[in-house]
Amino acid sequence: MAASETQLSAVVKLGSEAWPELVGVSKLKPGYCDSCHNYFKVNFQHRVTHLRLNMHPDGGISRLRVYGVGQRDWSSVSTNQDVDLVALTNGGVCLGYSDAHFGHPRNMIGLGRAANMGDGWETARRLDRPTHLKVDQRGILEVPGWEWAVFRLGRPGVISSIEVDTNHFKGNFPDSCRIEACSLTPEDEAQSIATRWSSLKWQILLPPQKLRPHHRHLYGEAELTLTRPMSHIRLVIAPDGGVSRLRLWGRPVRTTVASTNQPTANSKL
Q: Which residue ranges in the chain fall short of pLDDT 50?
């Protein structure tokens, strides 16, 4: 189907012929199974919203994929407006995790509800489960191990409500979860990634909560323990299992937040 005159006029108004170049003229390989994927590294440090693909001289392209980190235009967001600060579309990024045997934790911050278990985060079964299981006064299993995933928020902010969704996970959901938070500078973050987050002083945002299968768990200000801006969070599940979605609703801040990076022996994973 060819573009209409109206569509062509709209394209002309964009002035796309003068846009900066992300990838120069590059040779493509034929569409055989072992050669059809063509990857190109991009060194462009500015936020973009539109792309123009040129092919020479003609031919066919089956798929175009563009990989990167989402960046929302935060200047259009009021500091009095609650947004999902960890959402992929708002710039949330998974920076580390303990296990991703069946599904990557970045899936949890994707669009909408999960389509299936593979669209969420699921770990392998831990081998250090005790022979006899015990629970505390809240019915939460007392187990020696846990799994974790760390995220950088799209924008530092004050978190006011949380959703932990175990949709589709019925016999393989975690028994419990907790969420911790901190505020890091870029230098703090780089150091933490290099040490696999082994020495950070995390602060409890959401204390341990008993989870249910195939259920949306909602937590408000009554359950949350931090009221100051944070830039990073860690979801901890015990002992293992799957979570389909994680939402962190809060109000973004426009000022730089102070670092809480004070390593302690008690903060190790």
A: 264-269
